[in-house]
Amino acid sequence: MDNLKNKVAVITGGNSGIGYATAKQLKEQGATVIITGRRKEAIETAASQLGVTAIVSDQSNVADTENLVAKVKQDFGQVDILFINAGITGLGTIEQTTEALFDSIMNINFRGAYFTLSKFIPILKDGASVVFLSSNTASMSYAGSSVYSSGKAALNSVMKIASLELAPRRIRVNSISPGPTETEVMKKAGLDAETLKTIMEAVVDKIPLKQMGTSEDVAKMVSHLSSDASKFITGANFIMDGGMVLN
Ligand SMILES: NC(=O)c1ccc[n+]([C@@H]2O[C@H](COP(=O)([O-])OP(=O)(O)OC[C@H]3O[C@@H](n4cnc5c(N)ncnc54)[C@H](OP(=O)(O)O)[C@@H]3O)[C@@H](O)[C@H]2O)c1
User: Fold this and answer.
1) Mutate which of 185, 186, 214 for ligand 1 pocket (most atoms within 8 A of beta carbon)
2) Domain count of the chain?
3) In a domain, 1, yes or no
4) pTM for the predicted model, two decimal places
């Protein structure tokens, strides 16, 4: 499979989980892949495993994003595939939510994602594909997830407007909204193994297909949305959650 040959792909947050699996998938299909992350050692290890390029860049820092764009432009020219994936999670009722928690989630998941698109637009190739990593929680209402869910819902709104603004250049913009997917994201939220297990069991019970999603499932969708097979798809949000949103 080399249907992404000669395409340059940038994936934010590529050292683990969905970003890592997508870097692997796009590379296997012939793309030249650049992954980003905050931790130099982590992204360099991932990049050498995958045979891709690593650039340290914190998505919450717009100056970092500007440097990332400048480096990509200098070394690779234009970008065909932009997967804005980096994100964190965090829970708390509205009453409990501190400014620090609000800002840490929003600065990466929404503000950072927004300015990643904004700063990359000048070096996107005409006909490029942009994919935002949203979440099925953007379409649901869970107590305790107000900041995370509203940040993802805001991304879906930006995705639709971006698809209109960039259509004259045939640049397509879509989002993918996974349900619970087995990655590192929950462990990074500071939950211990026992709590995680309890949450996972409760979550799977709410999924009609009775299983968690995998990073590879999402990677295949990004690949589809990045190829000519989806050339008429823009402004769309794809929920991939085993039917969870319907419950
Ligand atoms: N897993 C799920 O159940 C699920 C469901 C729906 C949506 N999502 C979304 O999927 C995306 C990927 O998450 P994941 O589940 O694959 O989790 P993950 O394994 O934790 O991966 C997240 C990636 O983003 C990077 N990252 C975090 N903050 C960053 C920043 N400020 N700048 C640059 N990179 C940063 C992480 O690197 P570090 O090593 O620096 O943290 C890591 O490479 C997120 O946007 C998440 O909200 C996940």
Assistant:
1) 185
2) 1
3) no
4) 0.97
